[in-house]
Design goal:
The complex is a heterodimer of chains A (53) and B (733). By secondary structure, chain A is an all-alpha fold. Chain A is built from two helices and no strands. Chain A has a domain of 29 residues. The longest helix of chain A has 24 residues. In chain B, 52% of the residues lie in helices and 18% in strands. In chain B, strands 14-26-25-24-15-22-23 form a seven-stranded mixed sheet, sandwiched between helices. In chain B, strands 6-5-7-13-8-11 form a six-stranded antiparallel sheet, with no helix packed on it. In chain B, helix 13 runs parallel beside helix 25. Classes of the chains: A mainly alpha (53), B alpha+beta (733). At the A-B interface, helix 1 and helix 2 of A face helix 2, strand 2, helix 4 and helix 5 of B.
């Protein structure tokens, strides 16, 4: 059971990493226009960066 | 690139725009300005491309981005670019567009709040997943030291996260408790705090059951409900506010012969203001100089313009049509007829505020019941076990957690989000949180006429009675005027492909008509009295050529797009339809006949409209009022639920529960059927969570509830109600 000593921190670390990415997406306003993002995938025009604010 | 095939008619125009686009404009080096446009009719990928590329072709535009969720475009442009021109351009290429006030500060604030909720939700989700993983290990048989370790790790994750994420509930609960009231957040906070607190106690005494995962998933699911609720309202509120921010009331005040633009609020009685043709009169007052005609349709519903000359009174909200007027201010601000109307509205509105939403009704029963149940089980187990506080408390907490309104908290917001999203797609903006429920109860619809069922713009209807030469002269006379009847003639004549005659010495005589020379004769187009003609009892203007007797051009008010469909749809759904208008009987009868409305009343004053609505309400009818004018505002506020088109006067939009963003009335029919479906779903969801409580509560009361059972029940019921809500969205017509 000693392996838990590593595994628990590792799993929490990975989860925290996901959380940090979520903060990043939130900060860069990626949830402002879910409808539009769903439709834009059909348009064939590439737009790499979300608007800067 | 090729735009995808879509059912959106406006998108065909997208191809036009694409060919000319594709250049990057970096600006003229100066400060950029941000312009916001409302786009009620965009709804597909090709629309986005069409609008963005179309805007990019406009001089001075640096970048443009469409937000489809909010149906808005944000444009970065040079200082000199006017929002009005961009909106006109977009409307020209087939996308209805309106200018919005970019400075609306509240929009960014609601933005911040929704991001805050989402952040808390994300954190709660993270904690829930981690603790759930650890809990699975415990549930599948970890014992002794391992179990205690897992509980301690869970506690280390759960406590700070609950303290952070559940703050919105704690705050609401505290505000309610401070004024000695119970709301939904009190049992929620109590359950979260007790679950966490008791779990810590159990962990310290190496107990078997810890509810850290329950505390976190409660927080997570309820935050999800809260977020949905907030987003739905924020979208509606910010758009409605910005629509309102469109009309900045300004007046042209005359100071020492010079015109100065001042806010209406700064005008005083006795000031003189100038009102140019095409603009709204800002105040109540008496005409000093100038002659013109004013359009009172928004105030009274009259579709015929009224003559205004020196000594005549004009009211705030009327539109000056033909000649410039100077008006001496007789009343400003609160004393204007516009504001007196607002008082009527205030009285009518208090009646409506009494409406209790389904969610509030449920909470009013639910919150005390849960507390009593938990308290009861605590006392009962205390007695049964002869004073085992730990066991009694354990069971009481299990009861609180199991009954906690996860499903209830999601049941309403999930449905309203799905339904209002669907209505928003059809161009309807729900401003009020309870509008949907009230709309579902509607069984009687009252329409206003001018500007609501009709476009408020006349069209020529007796073209066939006139010789082509006469039409050519009428068209030429009408060309230079901004009077709506003249514009209707111009449109009809050019539409028929008739070349206007060549005239000389054309002059407009404000308030009367237009006069010119044609082949040595005087030709005149204008009011009957001016030409010595007999006045007809309908909207008409008259043409006199030389000595020949005057001939009449008659008009009717064209029906608004979708009006017939809306009336038919309402009838099909079992609603009685009534037309109440302030206009003359002949015009009202005509519209009622064309739309197949049997019940109509003409010549109604604002008080009369309210009276008619109260009469209907007294008879047990739930009335939906659809109107746009100032004369409708009181009636809109008095009705059970109300809808106004975006073209309505601000006062009317403010009191309405729903604003129609597009031009067409057609979505009205769907509004009622969607809201009926939504209310049905809400009730179903309440049913689901009640059923689940009926099974879970006895188990918890008997002390058989385990953290695993709680987690299963909570997740299952939350997912069931969410899926049930989504059924609304899935079935598209």
């Amino acid at each position: 059971m000693n392996v838990l000593v590593y595994l628990i921190p590792v799993s929490i670390f990975l989860g925290a990493l996901g959380l940090l990415f979520f903060f990043y997406t939130l900060k860069s306003r990626q949830y402002e226009d879910p409808e539009g993002d769903a439709q834009r995938i059909l348009s064939g025009i590439y737009d790499d960066a979300p608007p800067e604010d | 690139m090729a735009a995808p095939v879509s059912a959106c008619p406006a998108c065909d125009a997208a191809h036009l725009a694409e060919e000319t686009a594709g250049r990057g404009y970096a600006g003229d080096g100066g400060e950029s300005r941000r312009i916001m446009l409302s786009l009620p009719q965009v709804y597909c990928a090709a629309c986005i491309v069409g609008v963005e590329r179309g805007l990019a072709t406009q001089p001075g535009v640096r970048s443009a981005r469409v937000n489809l969720t909010l149906k808005r475009a944000t444009v970065e442009a040079d200082q000199g670019v006017e929002a009005e021109d961009l909106a006109a351009y977009l409307t020209g290429i087939g996308y209805e567009a309106y200018e919005l006030d970019a400075g609306a500060l509240s929009a960014t604030e609601t933005d911040k709040r929704s991001r805050d909720l989402m952040m808390r939700m994300g954190v709660a989700g993270f904690g829930m997943m981690n603790v759930m993983l650890l809990s699975v290990a415990v549930w599948s048989g970890a014992t002794e030291a391992t179990r205690d370790l897992f509980h301690w790790v869970s506690a280390a994750i759960a406590l700070p996260i609950v303290a952070f994420s559940a703050q919105p509930f704690f705050r609401n609960a505290w505000t309610a408790l401070r004024v000695a009231r119970l709301n939904m957040d009190v049992p929620i906070s109590l359950a979260i705090i007790l679950a966490a607190g008791m779990s810590v106690y159990e962990t310290m005494h190496s107990g078997q059951h810890a509810y850290f995962d329950a505390a976190l998933s409660l927080t997570f699911f309820l935050l999800a409900g809260r977020y949905l609720d907030h987003r739905t309202r924020a979208v509606a509120r910010s758009a409605a506010e910005e629509l309102a921010a469109l009309e900045v009331p300004r007046a042209h005040k005359i100071v020492d012969g010079q015109e100065v633009v001042v806010p209406v609020a700064e005008l005083a009685v006795g000031d003189v203001v100038r009102v140019t043709p095409g603009n709204r009169v800002p105040v109540d007052g008496m005409v000093e100089t100038g002659e013109s005609e004013v359009d009172r349709s928004l105030l009274t519903g009259e579709s015929l313009p009224v003559f205004a000359g020196p000594g005549e009174m004009v009211n705030a909200g009327e539109v000056n049509l033909t000649g410039p007027l100077t008006v001496r201010v007789a009343a400003t601000g609160e004393d204007t007829s516009l504001h007196r109307m607002a008082d009527l509205v205030a009285i009518a509105e208090t009646a409506r505020n009494k409406y209790t939403s389904l969610a509030d009704k449920a909470a009013a029963i639910y919150a005390p019941a849960v507390h009593l149940l938990a308290l009861g089980s605590f006392v009962a187990w205390l007695v049964i076990t002869g004073g085992d506080v730990r066991l009694a408390l354990n069971i009481a907490v299990a009861v609180l957690i199991i009954t906690c309104p996860c499903a209830l908290g999601l049941a309403v917001p999930a449905v309203t989000t799905a339904a209002s999203g669907r209505l928003f797609k059809r161009g309807m903006l729900l401003k009020s949180a309870t509008a949907m429920e009230r709309l579902a109860e509607v069984d009687h619809v009252v329409f206003d006429k001018t500007g609501t069922l009709t476009q408020g713009e006349p069209t020529l209807d007796n073209m066939g009675d006139h010789a082509e030469a006469d039409l050519a002269i009428a068209g030429a006379l009408a060309q230079g005027s901004s009077h709506p009847l003249a514009q209707a003639i111009t449109q009809a004549v050019s539409g028929a492909g008739i070349m206007p005659s060549v005239l000389s010495e054309v002059r407009e005589i404000p308030g009367y008509g237009i006069e010119a020379q044609h082949g040595g004769e005087i030709v005149r187009l204008g009011r009957a009295e001016w030409l010595g003609a007999r006045t007809l009892d309908r909207t008409a203007t008259y043409l006199k050529i030389g000595k020949r007797p005057a001939v009449a051009f008659t008009f009717n008010d064209a029906l608004r797009e979708g009006a017939a469909e809306a009336v038919a749809a309402m009838k099909a759904q079992g609603c009685a339809v009534t037309l109440i208008s302030g206009d003359a009987p002949a015009a009202v009868q005509d519209v009622a006949f064309r739309l197949g409305i049997e019940d109509y009343r003409a010549g109604m004053l604002p008080e009369g409209k309210v009276g008619a609505l109260e009469e209907l309400a007294a008879g047990g009818a739930k009335v939906l009022m659809v109107g746009d004018g100032l004369n409708d505002t009181a009636a809109l506020a008095a009705a059970h639920v109300s809808i106004s088109p975006a073209s309505a006067l601000e006062a009317a939009r403010v009191v309405s529960d729903i604003v129609l963003l597009g031009k067409s009335l057609e979505p009205l029919g769907e509004a009622v059927s969607t809201s009926r479906k939504a209310t049905k779903r809400i009730k179903e969801n309440f049913g689901i969570s009640t059923a689940y409580n009926l099974i879970a509560i006895p188990i918890a009361l008997l002390g058989f509830a385990t953290p695993l059972a709680a987690a299963l029940a909570m997740s299952l019921s939350s997912i069931t109600v969410s899926l049930n809500a989504l059924r609304l969205k899935a079935r598209r017509s």
